Structures are given as structure tokens and as C-alpha cells.
UniProtKB/TrEMBL annotation:
Keywords: ATP-binding, Cytokinin biosynthesis, Nucleotide-binding, Transferase. This is tRNA dimethylallyltransferase 2. Belongs to the IPP transferase family. Pfam families: IPPT (PF01715). GO terms for biological process: cytokinin biosynthetic process; tRNA modification. GO terms for cellular component: mitochondrion. GO terms for molecular function: ATP binding; tRNA dimethylallyltransferase activity. PANTHER family: TRNA DIMETHYLALLYLTRANSFERASE, TRNA DIMETHYLALLYLTRANSFERASE 2.
Length: 321
């Protein structure tokens, strides 16, 4: 596999703190929902000594593990994960909160001679962490402040960043991501998504703060209202949550309960697909002059690779066997 030469790809077996005057090195893996960020980060651990810091604004909260698609313990393969399911679901965890929590974590990871890998699709979390200019410590609304549409040259240049960053932006075609999102939501429903949402459901709740902001909570509000009002005293009600919701979806006929459930699930899919598009647009802000797409094999790709080889920016990276 060919990849751009970066300090991060040459760290295996090296002393990460060899130059005390240089900026700390970090890897930032970005990409839309479904692009494979977490899997890539965990795979890196087989080549480099790393620890992962989660930068997903919903996965930082405790609860809704299925809905927010947290990496299960058995899939983490022993790689340390930080800020994953650690924040109370009822508080607002802003971009400033993330920055203030992540900076000391990066220092701790470095003290263990490991490479911090930041993983997530919440672009304003990542911007707040790596840029010195997007957050004012005294801003009344730090999250809104970091979302200002600042010119890329004001914060995207390496000398303006808090760390020596290697940005890895994963990309995929929108049709492929849309298909993945639709399939993933169906799998989540089968895995107990609705039971999770029922546990956090509260009539007339505030869906603008904390974990209730997650896509997949508000979308089921009308359905849960109807279910509670119509079925609360029915012995059949627990079937929806405690047995197999797929039986209701696959049942013949289209009664009101099934129709409302299907509508809610379609809303989750639609809003997740919209999120994918917002994430893809946001990632473009972090792409610099040396961006090149590894998955393409056309004439422009070959020309770019040839130029990078001649300039010394490209090396062949062979994973350890």
C-alpha cells in the first residue's frame, strides 16, 4: 500500500518524546458516519503503540450504546479508549468541554510513550482541539464560537495548530454510505435500539441538550406516546421491547402501531443520511494542499502519486507480518 510520508507512519519502535521542543504528534481520523473510522483506528494499534480518544459528540455520553454505535468492548481488542461513554447523559458537553478534557489526556498518553489517535465525526470537537483560534476561553457560547466560518488559512496551517497533526479523512460515495446507514439502522432496531430509547424517553423532554440530542431519540417520540396511551395496560405491550420487535415489523397488515413504528424508523434513516452529508462537507475544511485520494486509480491519481514520489512526500508502507 502506498501512503504519504508523515512522521506518524515512522513512529513504530521510536521514542515518541525524542524532541521535547517539537509539538506533540497526534493522528486525527475523520469521516462521515459509516466510513470505518473506528475500525481503522483499532487496526492501527497492530502497527503502532496508540490510545484512542473518542471525538463523537454523542458517544461521549453514558447510555444508548446501540443507538450511538459505540465500539463494543470485544471489538476494541484491548486498545485503550478515552471519552467513550463517560459523560452524564443529562449534561451538555460542549466543544470547549471536549477540548479541556482531551488536552490532558493527550499529555497522559504521550507520557506513556504512546501515540494519541483522535477518532470521530464531530468536526467542531476536532477543530476546537487542534486549532488555537476557534475557541475563546471566555466565550459565553464556546460551541457556537468554534463553528464560526473562519478562513482555512487562519487555522488550517501546520504552524497555527496546537499539535503536529496527521489528518486521515475517510471518504466513500454517498450512495454506498446511504445503503450502509439504512442497513445499520435496521440492525440497530433488531439489536434493541427501541428498548434503549424507551428507557431514556420522557414526555415533552428537551431534545436540544445532552444525550437526547442523538438521532434516533426524538424520532420515536410520537410512536412512544401512542404506544403508552394505547397499550400501557395491555399484556402484549412488553413484546415490543423484551421479545422480538421484528415480529411486529414482519406481521401482516398495517395497523396504526406498525405504521407509526415504520415511520419513526424511516425518520431515523433520513436524519442519519442528512448527518452524513453535513459531516462530509465539514471534512473538506481540513483538507490541505497535499491531499490525495488513495482509492482512485485514474490518470490524475497516477500523476499525483508520481509528483509525490519525486518530491519525497511518498513512501511505501508495508504493515508488519
Amino acid at each position: 500500500m502506498e501512503t504519504e510520508s508523515t512522521p506518524e507512519l515512522q513512529l513504530a519502535g521510536a521514542n515518541l518524546n525524542s524532541d521535547p521542543n517539537s509539538k506533540p504528534k497526534i493522528v486525527v481520523i475523520m469521516g462521515a458516519t459509516g466510513s470505518g473510522k473506528s475500525k481503522l483506528a483499532i487496526d492501527l494499534a497492530s502497527h503502532f503503540p496508540i490510545e484512542i480518544i473518542n471525538a463523537d459528540s454523542m458517544q461521549v455520553y453514558r447510555g444508548l450504546d446501540v443507538l450511538t454505535n459505540k465500539v463494543p468492548d470485544h471489538e476494541q481488542k484491548g486498545v485503550p479508549h478515552h471519552l467513550l461513554g463517560t459523560v452524564s447523559p443529562n449534561v451538555e458537553f460542549t466543544a470547549k468541554d471536549f477540548r479541556d478534557a482531551a488536552i490532558p489526556l493527550i499529555d497522559e498518553i504521550w507520557s506513556r510513550n504512546c501515540l494519541p489517535v483522535i477518532v470521530g465525526g464531530t468536526n467542531y470537537y476536532i477543530q476546537a482541539l487542534v486549532s488555537r483560534f476557534l475557541l475563546d476561553d471566555h466565550a459565553e457560547d464556546p460551541e457556537a464560537n468554534c463553528l464560526l466560518d473562519l478562513p482555512g488559512q487562519n487555522w488550517g496551517r501546520a504552524d497555527n495548530l496546537r499539535y503536529d497533526c496527521c489528518f486521515i479523512c475517510l471518504d466513500a460515495s454517498l450512495p454506498a454510505l446511504d445503503q450502509y446507514v439504512n442497513q445499520r439502522v435496521d440492525l440497530m432496531v433488531s439489536a434493541g435500539l427501541l428498548e434503549e430509547v424507551r428507557d431514556i424517553y420522557k414526555l415533552n423532554a428537551d431534545y436540544t441538550r445532552g444525550l437526547r440530542q442523538a438521532i434516533g431519540v426524538r424520532e420515536f417520540e410520537d410512536f412512544l406516546k401512542y404506544w403508552n396511551s394505547e397499550c400501557l395496560q395491555s399484556s402484549a405491550c412488553p413484546e415490543l421491547f423484551n421479545e422480538n420487535i421484528c415480529q411486529i415489523m414482519d406481521s401482516t397488515g398495517d395497523d396504526q402501531t406498525k405504521l407509526m413504528l415504520k415511520e419513526a424508523i424511516e425518520k431515523v434513516k433520513l436524519n442519519t443520511r442528512r448527518l452524513v452529508r453535513r459531516q462530509a462537507c465539514g471534512n473538506k475544511e481540513l483538507r490541505g494542499a497535499h491531499e490525495w485520494e488513495q482509492h482512485q486509480r485514474g490518470r490524475s491519481h497516477r500523476k499525483r502519486v508520481s509528483h509525490l514520489r519525486k518530491s519525497g512526500h511518498l513512501v511505501r508502507f508495508e504493515p508488519e507480518k
